[in-house]
Amino acid sequence: MSGSVRWLCLAWTFASLADWFVLWVVVWSAELQSWSGLQTAGIIMAARAPALVGGIVGGLAIDRYGPRRMMLVDGASRLLTMLGLTLLGVLGGFGYAGAVVLVCLAGATAPISYSAVRTFLPRLVAADDLGRANTLLTIGNALPLVLSAGVVGPTLHLFGLGPSFLVPAALMGGVLLITLWLPTTTPVAPLRAAGGASVLDENLAPLGGRELRRWRRLRVPAGALALLGLSTTYYFTFGPVEPVLPLVVREHLDAGVNTYSLLWSVVGIGALLGLVLAPPLCRLPRPGAVNAVIAALNGVAMVPLALTDSLGVAVLACLGIGLLWTPYSAVEATALQRLTPARHHGKLFGIQRALVISALPVGAAAGAFALDRTSPAVVLLGSAVACIGFALLALAVPALRARVG
Known about the structure:
Elements: H1 3-32, H2 37-48, H3 51-65, H4 67-92, H5 96-120, H6 130-137, H7 139-159, H8 161-164, H9 166-181, E1 211-215, E2 218-221, H10 222-238, H11 241-252, H12 257-273, H13 278-282, H14 287-307, H15 311-339, H16 345-371, H17 376-394, H18 398-401
Antiparallel strand pairs: 1-2
Helix pairs in contact: 1-2, 1-5, 1-7, 1-9, 2-5, 2-16, 3-4, 3-5, 3-16, 4-5, 4-9, 5-16, 6-15, 7-12, 10-14, 10-16, 10-17, 11-16, 11-17, 12-15, 14-15, 14-17
């Protein structure tokens, strides 16, 4: 694996860590400041919903200007936003209205780095190595869960709410510095096979050109569209875990912020262990079916988390959730890169990130709203059943089960 791929992985890890850190601070602080379920839903939506626009616009910009330039834009934008959140906390407290505005700004450009690294990757490695390289990039999905959840509690205790945002500010500064070292690429570059021969764009849509729609000039093969639909429902049904987990920790486990951090850290550890499973799963010929099974198993893993009052059982459930997360991301990214012409990767991954990162807060908002009317256990059980149900329905879609070779 080239040094550029490793630097790309580090930049994505920093960007993802900053994003997760902000979300955990917001979710945990909601309870501390006595915000209602509706207010909590609103702040989570503010943190994630702008990604719907930012992901699509950012993806279009990546295809036009190149992934490196757009990573610099995201790094500079979020660095300034984190400094603004710090200033707000130090000078005037973390008021609800100001928090919504600045968290909105932080979420708007967050999808750009994700789309950029997935677009960058096929320009740095041979097509035959995509699965392994995408697995390496999923460290940027897994490690931030371990680190951000582990440091949020101690950081809040030591420095308070406002100064805590200097942590993601430093991380986005790191993204800027690393991106400056990455190679400059042209806006459009073809995938290359191991022998060095170009892989024609037409051959990257192995479903024989079956397309359901055009999104502007982006041709979306049926298999890619099915994968996007599965991921949207997967993240939506997982969303309620975010606002519910603090209540599970307090009411079921009779614990506090350190246990909350521990559970998210265990999810991240499981995701790191999932790195072992991802490469062989990426090589399977039916990635859509693989991910549908993973999504169903994720729903099964959520059930004991809803029912237990044992920390050990909760830890095992979180470990299982994390273990399934990494293979899902790597399999999906590799399949989308193969299904879609290289000149459209920025748009596709922008749309993909916009959909899933928006589905997560919508699910979280629904869970937070439901908490005003029912118990955390009921909300988690409903999420688990929905996750399993959507995954089984997805398996009935022929395009999702199709071979990708």
